[in-house]
Design a protein that fits this description.
By secondary structure, the chain is of the alpha+beta class. It folds into two domains: 4-216 and 380-439, FAD/NAD(P)-binding domain (3-Layer(bba) Sandwich); 220-370, no CATH class. The protein contains 15 helices and 22 strands. It has helices spanning 4-7, 31-40, 58-62, 77-80, 96-105, 108-117, 136-150, 199-206, 228-231, 265-279, 296-309, 319-324, 330-339, 348-360, 416-439; strands at 13-14, 20-27, 47-51, 71-72, 91-93, 122-125, 128-131, 153-156, 163-165, 171-173, 177-184, 211-217, 221-223, 235-244, 247-257, 261-263, 286-289, 362-364, 366-369, 377-382, 400-402, 409-411. Strands 1, 2, 3, 8, 9, 10, 11 and 21 form an eight-stranded mixed beta sheet that branches. It has a seven-stranded antiparallel beta sheet with strand order 18-17-14-15-16-13-19. It has a three-stranded antiparallel beta sheet with strand order 4-7-6. Strand 10 (171-173) and strand 11 form a beta hairpin. Helix 2 packs parallel to helix 15 (416-439) and helix 5 (96-105) packs across helix 15 (416-439). The two termini are 38 Å apart. Bound molecules: flavin-adenine dinucleotide (FAD).
């Protein structure tokens, strides 16, 4: 367990008005806050991290199902452009140039090197990078230990409610602390149980920063079709296809059905795009291809072969279920049968074609996303146009910085969101470090 006493060390000076003064205060001790602290700490500056949770880096513990998918080999600008047509982008923001500028300064290779230099061995699993131990707790402990070794002070259980700035000089935090540089690393709204309540947005807005409406991302999608009750708990490999901005988008993976709609990685990947379409009043339709690895005409042939296997005398009973058994999950078959009407003409060719189309063009109708509590990240956030991607400093308020999920940038599943936290932290930390040495 963490002792509060152990976390509080170092010697900040006390100001005339009895506030404790630090060179740098970081609000939020998550992935980006702790890394900013590590990158910015020098022997000569004082750095304080404030977090309202009882332990720093609480969210890191639940990442990657407890294994922490730190980054992805595709999280580098060279590979961003090679994302094949039709697939969703690895990262999304109101301003793609902003995240490209950030990632170009600190990408997946820098993340792997940073962790290696700090003693963490990583492993590449099909491009997904994890700690070799496959334990998120190792990442959490490493970051906390490095902070402690370097003399970063961490105060837990402190819920920051107010920040202000004296004219052209120091920031005041909760009428208790004062600092020259303030970093907002408070995350977004996703994962309320790990300390995210959107309070950072309010703080940023007091300084005139605009907020791009936050919506849940990497979460399940509620659909209004009647068959989900029967599909609940079913998992199957499938491809999701839909149209956004006139462009066909598709994503493939292990789809999970729930009583409210669709979940699992492919649903997570498209959730923020679907969420924004719903927010602007569009009615997206998602087509599910239940056998994406087989082309339509091949599937017609396969179904026809299965049809021929049924004895002529049995073809009038329920040929469709027999044709599909052995090809699809039973629950999926019954959902397809609810949408499917057997063609009127007694023609096996027409039946096989109609059935193949039903399997490859199964439609669901989203109406809402699952709430922030169930989301892994936030789409939207602080408008990036007011933040300098070369420093992470506010263009509106000197000495105010932003890192991580609080900004209007979000990634798909696969390590892109932690990479974002690490990239922004490295740039911010480097800027703060150089400023401190300049002051000496
Ligand atoms: C279940 C789950 C699994 C995930 N798995 C992965 C994964 O495997 N790979 C990946 O890349 N991404 C993953 N993510 C996303 C990733 O964890 C986040 O994008 C990342 O942690 C964001 O880092 P951050 O530092 O910006 O914010 P956070 O980690 O959210 O940290 C913000 C911190 O600020 C503190 N705070 C907020 N407001 C205040 C306040 N007013 N006063 C004091 N403290 C405050 C919070 O307590 C919190 O500790 C996952 C997310 C979840 C929820």
């Amino acid at each position: 367990m963490f002792s509060r006493r152990k976390l509080l060390h170092g010697s900040p000076r006390t100001t005339n008005n009895h506030f404790m003064f630090y060179d740098i205060i970081i609000i939020g001790g998550g992935a980006s806050g702790l890394c900013t602290a590590i990158h910015s700490k020098t022997e000569n500056n004082t750095v304080l991290v404030l977090d309202h949770n009882s332990i720093p880096g609480k969210k890191i513990l639940s990442t990657g199902n407890g294994r922490c998918n730190l980054t992805n080999v595709n999280a580098s600008v060279d590979l961003f452009d090679s994302n094949p047509e039709g697939l969703i982008p690895y990262m999304t923001s109101g301003d793609p140039l902003f995240y490209q500028e950030v990632i170009s300064q600190f990408d997946c290779h820098d993340t792997i090197n940073f962790f290696a230099e700090n003693g963490l061995l990583c492993v590449d699993k099909n491009g997904y990078i994890y700690p070799r131990s496959e334990q998120a707790s190792a990442v959490n402990e490493l970051l906390r230990n490095r902070c402690e070794d370097l003399g970063v002070e961490i105060v837990v259980g402190h819920d920051v409610r107010s920040i202000s700035k004296k004219k052209d000089s120091e920031f005041i935090v909760d009428s208790k602390y004062e600092c020259s540089n303030l970093v907002l690393a408070t995350g977004g709204l996703a994962g309320a149980s790990t300390g995210n309540d959107g309070s950072g947005y309010k703080m940023a807005r007091t300084f005139g920063h605009e907020l791009v409406e936050p919506i849940p991302a990497l979460c399940g999608i509620k659909c209004r079709d009647p068959f989900f009750r029967h599909l609940k708990g079913t998992r199957t490999d499938a491809k999701l296809i839909f149209k956004a901005n006139g462009k066909n988008i598709s994503v493939q993976g292990n789809l999970q059905f729930t009583d409210y709609g669709i979940s699992g990685i492919p649903a997570f990947q498209i959730s923020s795009i679907i969420g924004y379409m719903l927010a602007i009043g569009e009615s997206p339709v998602i087509t599910i291809d239940f056998i994406p690895e087989i082309a339509l005409y091949e599937l017609v042939n396969l179904l026809y072969r299965n049809y021929q296997l049924i004895p002529k005398s049995a073809r009038f009973d329920d040929p469709v279920t027999r044709m599909l058994t052995g090809i699809l999950n039973k629950n999926v078959i019954s959902a397809i049968m609810r949408q499917f009407t057997i063609p009127a003409e007694n023609d096996p060719d027409a039946l096989c074609l109609a059935l193949a189309r039903a399997i490859k063009l199964f439609q669901v109708h989203p109406y809402e996303l699952m709430p922030f509590e169930n989301a892994q990240t936030t789409a939207g956030g602080i408008f990036t146009g007011d933040v300098d991607p070369l420093t992470m400093e506010s263009r509106l308020v000197k000495g105010l910085f932003f890192t991580g999920e609080i900004l209007d940038v979000n990634g798909i599943c696969g390590g892109y969101n932690l990479q974002w936290a690490f990239s922004t932290a490295a740039i911010c930390g480097k800027t703060l470090r150089s400023r401190q040495s300049f002051r000496l």
